[in-house]
Amino acid sequence: MPSAASQGARNTRMLKKLAVVTVMMFGFGYALIPLYDVFCEITGINFLTQADGKAEDFARNTQVDSSRSVKVVFDANIKGPWRFHPTMSSVTVHPGELTTVVYEIANQQDKQMVGQAIPSYMPMAAAQHFKKLECFCFAQQDLKPHEARSFPVVFVVDPKLPKDVTEITLSYTFFEIPGRVAGVEATRVTGGS
User: Fold this and answer.
1) 170 and 75 Cβ atoms separated by less than 8 Å
2) Where are the domains of the chain?
3) Where are the transmembrane segments (predicted)?
4) Within its chain, how far is the Cα of 25 from the centroid?
5) Please, are residues 47 and 41 in contact by the beta-carbon 8 Å criterion?
6) Residue 175 three-state SS
7) Are 105 and 80 in contact (CB under 8 A)?
8) Residues whose CB falls within 8 Å of the CB of residue 140, separated by 6 or more in sequence, listed in order
9) Bridge partners, 99 (sequence order)
10) I need a labelling partner for 57 at 20 to 30 A (CA). Which of 6, 90, 112, 191 fits?
């Protein structure tokens, strides 16, 4: 039968191991958010779009490659009570050509709502060659009850786009931001004092 001292030593070792595992699990959970952001940026999936500060200079200084054309197809998906669609289904552009398209968003509810658009590209390799100067996806959008608004997307396709890519699909998913109302975080009400 083990002595009380050896049992205490084993319990201390086990406690240390459990503490290390707990710290590692907490660290892993904490690291998941930046890892998810990196994964989404690399794959082009659910990436929260940041405005590209260099896109305007790029568009101003790039040459239009009129020797080739790229068809850009526009798609819209919704999660929630919205009406959301592009005003045109596709456009054919020359790489380096500045282009503007319009998406329409309408809140179909009797209350004010906040939404966010997340872009995705097919083929995924096209994402790095699709430069947006202006986009509603750069910020969350506040819409009043039954309000409808039009938003431009101003972009240029980089002439360095691989020559075998002749069609790009730009797809947006627009969804409600739960807990957000009119640009203010909603507070949770709890019972008791």
Assistant:
1) yes
2) 1-43, 55-181
3) 18-36
4) 27
5) yes
6) strand
7) no
8) 114, 115, 116, 177, 180, 183
9) 155
10) 90
Which of these, 157, 168, 133, 160, lies nearest to 57 by C-alpha position?
133
Any idea what DSSP says for residue 56?
H
Ramachandran angles phi, psi of 168, nearest 5°: -125, 135
Q: Which residues pair with 83 in a beta bridge?
A: 106
The pTM score is: 0.64
Alpha helix positions (H), 44-182: 55-61
The overall average pLDDT reported for the chain is: 81
Is the distance from CB of 130 to CB of 170 less than 8 angstroms? Answer: yes
C-alpha 68 chain-centroid distance: 30
Q: Measured between alpha carbons, how far is 94 from 91 in angstroms, rounded to an integer?
A: 10
In the 8-state DSSP scheme, what is residue 50? P
Q: What is the pLDDT of residues 127-150, one digit of tens each?
A: 888 988 889 988 889 999 999 999
- The CA distance from 37 to 33, in Å, is 6
> Number of C-alpha atoms within 13 angstroms, CB side, residue 90?
10
Domain 55-181 belongs to what topology? Ctag/Cox11 (Pfam 04442) (2.60.370)
Helix, strand, coil: what percent of the chain each, to 5?
30, 35, 35
